[in-house]
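User: I'm writing a tutorial on reading structure tokens. Could you give me a worked example: one chain, its sequence, then its tokens, then a sentence or two explaining what the tokens reveal?
Assistant: Sure. Here is the example chain.
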Amino acid sequence: MDNVLVLVRHGESEWNRLNLFTGWRNPDLTEKGVAEATRAGKLLKQHGVVFDLAFTSELLRAQRTLALILEELGQSNLKTIRDKAINERDYGELSGLNKEEAKVRWSEEQVLVWRRSYDVPPPGGESLKDTAARVLPYYKKKIWPSVKAGKNVIVAAHGNSLRALIMYLEELSAKEILEREVATGAPMVYKLTEHGTVADRRDLADPKED
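And here are its predicted structure tokens:
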């Protein structure tokens, strides 16, 4: 499989398991998260994907997921670029709080607005719109040129930084992207045209794609 962009969200983290808002905090993967990342590597290997370049965030859970994937592919020495531009959305004052605790503190309705609106940020944090404002310029300047040049590129990042990319690539509305779930450790393989639009997308973790 050549000339592809692969997006993968990190495996389950310790704070995912505890139902905490994580944002830019830095927990490691759980055992389940390690297994998800390893499975992602196996799926990519089964489909014959070999990468030329990797991008990840400055957060451990994404970096470790990428390392486990590349280990499965026998590409542990692949050139990897780390940048905070593709870090998870910053949840500000919500970071580190249990989602149920946050509802008690601010009300369930308010927390839902922060979680599921496109452009309303939590106190001291970022909205999805804010996240896109740093992710997309980085994609256009650093990631897309390598894909356009014919390289196979993997981006191991986070639910909301990847949502920002998916929204752009698939030309989704703000409402559509908020309804889109990004599963942990599930590779999404994009074939892009020379103009950067999506020619084909395959979700390798989908049973129909196995």
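What the tokens reveal: Residues 128-148 form the longest helix (21 residues). The helical segments are 14-17, 31-46, 60-72, 99-106, 108-116, 128-148, 159-169, 174-178.
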